[in-house]
Each structure stands twice: as structure tokens, then as C-alpha cells.
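quick q for whoever's on today - can somebody do inverse folding on this one?? i tried earlier but teh output was garbage lol. C-alpha cells:
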């Protein structure tokens, strides 16, 4: 019996430099990860897009907690592969006023960041989209935390993330998951 070929996937390793990331944001400018200067981390939340009801809840909760993340030195951006029009619709329909919203994430960028990619199967889904991911990147571009999902559920709980990061930042907590 022949062994099936297993596709290879990228897995980002904490403690190593992350790939470059540039996206258009709804404010009309281009956002570049390596130009960010947070006190502690840049938090990148990759969301599925306008079609995802669980993304609505997650991003609305993040919007409510954004000031808490900012207070501990974490700057946030949320990014999807949606078009400009779909990203605007998400912002307006979901009542997002404070979050930076990036759009137009390419398949190549999805792959470089180790995101799972799905083909649209339902009428409201785009032909191709990324599944959720959440990354914390130090100001020097080094990965501190990675959470990647292959489905819309199971994302890091934001309250748990906030309390954990508060502990990390106040107790010189070591980097984890660096062994390959």
C-alpha cells in the first residue's frame, strides 16, 4: 500500500523573526509590521472575513477590550483576505470603531504565517479565505506567541490572554515553545 504524500506546512517558531507583513488598512494607508513600535507587542488577529458569525463576536469583544490591551503595551490589528468593500461592510455592520482593520491578505501571506486556508463552500463565503490566527510579535520582529486554528472556534479567550499577558509582562516570564 502506497503512503500518501503529506503536504508540508510552515510553522512559525517563537523566538524567531516573523515574515514580513504589509496590508492595506481601512484608514487609507498601508500598514507594515516592521514599522510598528508598541511598548510590548503587536497583536495580529487574522480573522476569516465578513461571512463568519464567530468573527463578529470575537472582534466586537476585542474592540471592547482594546483599551485594556493598549494599557499594557499591546497594539492590535485585525486582518482578513476580504476585499476593501467586504472589510468596510464588516466594520460598519459589526460596529467596529477603534480597531485597525487590514484587508486583502494574499494566499502567499496566509501561507507564510502558517494559517490554515479554506475553500469557500457556502454561498456567503469567498472562494478562498484564511482560518483564524493570533500572533504576538515583539517590537524587534521576534515571535512571542502563536495561536492558529483550522476552524472558526477555539480561538484564545481574550480575558485569559489579557491576564496572561499582564503576568508575562510583570514577571519576566520566559519564551515558550522554542524547541523544534
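ok took a stab at it. sequence:
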Amino acid at each position: 500500500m502506497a503512503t500518501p504524500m503529506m503536504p508540508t506546512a510552515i510553522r512559525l517558531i517563537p523566538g524567531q523573526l516573523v515574515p514580513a507583513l504589509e496590508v492595506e488598512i481601512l484608514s487609507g494607508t498601508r500598514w507594515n509590521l516592521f514599522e510598528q513600535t508598541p511598548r510590548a507587542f503587536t497583536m495580529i488577529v487574522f480573522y476569516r472575513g465578513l461571512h463568519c458569525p464567530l468573527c463578529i463576536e470575537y472582534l466586537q469583544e476585542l474592540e471592547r477590550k482594546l483599551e485594556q490591551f493598549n494599557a499594557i503595551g499591546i497594539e492590535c490589528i485585525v486582518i482578513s483576505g476580504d476585499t476593501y468593500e467586504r472589510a468596510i461592510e464588516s466594520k460598519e455592520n459589526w460596529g467596529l470603531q477603534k480597531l485597525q482593520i487590514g484587508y486583502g491578505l494574499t494566499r502567499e501571506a496566509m501561507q507564510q504565517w502558517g494559517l490554515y486556508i479554506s475553500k469557500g463552500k457556502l454561498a456567503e463565503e469567498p472562494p478562498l479565505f484564511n482560518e483564524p490566527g493570533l500572533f504576538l510579535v515583539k517590537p524587534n520582529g521576534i515571535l512571542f506567541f502563536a495561536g492558529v486554528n483550522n476552524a472558526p472556534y477555539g480561538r484564545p479567550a481574550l480575558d485569559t490572554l489579557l491576564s496572561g499577558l499582564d503576568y508575562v509582562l510583570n514577571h519576566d516570564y520566559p519564551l515558550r515553545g522554542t524547541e523544534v
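fwiw The radius of gyration is 16 Å. also The helical segments are 53-71, 84-94, 107-112, 158-170. so keep that in mind when u check it
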